[in-house]
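Onboarding guide, step 5: your first structure request.
Type a short instruction followed by the sequence, for example:

Predict the 3D structure of this protein.
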Amino acid sequence: MGVHEECGILGIIAPTPVDVADLCYVGLQALQHRGQESCGIVVNDDGVFFSHKDLGLVSEVFDGRKLESLPASTMAVAHVRYGTTGSNSRANCQPIEVNHQKGRMALAHNGNLSNATELRMALELSGAIFHSSSDTETIAYIVTRERLSAPSIEEALSRAMDTLEGAYSLVLMSPQKLICARDPHGFRPLCYGKTSDGIYVVASESCALQALGATFIRDVDPGEIIVFGKDSVTSRREHCGRASKRLCVFEYIYFARPDSVIDGISVHASRIAAGKALACAHPAEADIVIGAPDSGLDAALGFSHESGIPYGIGLIKNKYVGRTFIAPTGRKGQVRIKLAAIESAVVGKRVVLVDDSIVRGTTSRRVVQLLRDAGAREVHMRISAPPFLHPCFYGTDIDSEGHLIACRHSVAEIASLIGADSLGYLPLEKLACLTYGNGYCDACFSGTYPTSIPIGQGKDRFERRLSEASES
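The system replies with structure tokens like these:
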């Protein structure tokens, strides 16, 4: 518990005008787990853009009146945000809209650019004025700059991709086209499908396609640009194969919904496999295996299957409370508001508690104490990921090394600090079981980064957010 998330993106193009805002609302609800800070929808009504964006959950930002204010149309892009760069302000709400000499553009983006600071500095020195602090505006500037000389918006995007480094899955809307693209490493997921009435849907995860009744067609390949026009769908592949595939492995461990399929792999099956590998690497003598809701549940089931220890429900999540890390303050109280232990399931028992990660250790310590207070005789913590040892520069808000508990303490010391009788992490070499041999990025665990990384920059976003909150 405690890992910060990134964003979810959505694009819709229909053959005839429909209530695209309503469709976006449904799709964003399915992607809400990917971001709970802000959300937005931009509708394209024959080249005129209408939008609504604000801070809050999808259900808070969009009521019936707001949705009705957005016209029926054939195209829209939408976004849910948990920002891994930039503050939580309305200026950073997406999709970003741009007016330029050759028309309009709306852009929704998931990921982080590893060369964002360098690009932004160069743009500012050339006279660019930024209104937000997110990477997305940098991408929008570069695409716009290229569009002034490019024959088409997709060509402008292709040229921009020669400059961008790091993680970016994005959906871009011009007056006439819907375009999606994925960076050459494929750090972040992106897929598309089609409904029975001919509506194409592009989304971060396949669960959004299911929510909209769209049949999954395929994942967008790393480096691929797909252009959806009124009468055609075309693929541009000039950036494909330029880099090794490096999907963020934490998508399978934590970020994605278990009913999603990413790059051909079921997230549910991946987590089951991680739990089985964890049971083999770190067995325990126990009476029950439980998972920390929600992302620890599937791994706990896998641990149970492999170990033969009965699986049970020992923690209940309050479904009306968001993930604890969304609020940078008040985390102590939120743990008990969010979770409750089932005393009858754990009292007097030796419990294996499976969770997806330990970042600072504060949340894990409180959850272990919840189980102790409910009468658990022993608590053996098992983590379905290796220890976090390095910051992430690609869209996962892994903190600076100075704040990662595994950088400062041994496994035995961490077990003592969180109050567990024992602690075991998934070995680094076992991560491959989650992706069934597909390439993945494990830089936050191994320190092996697929791209060059910013020099002299820490990843102390959590403290920045507290500072911003105190100043406001």
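Each response can be followed by summary notes, for example: Residues 323-331, 459-472 have pLDDT under 50 and may be disordered.
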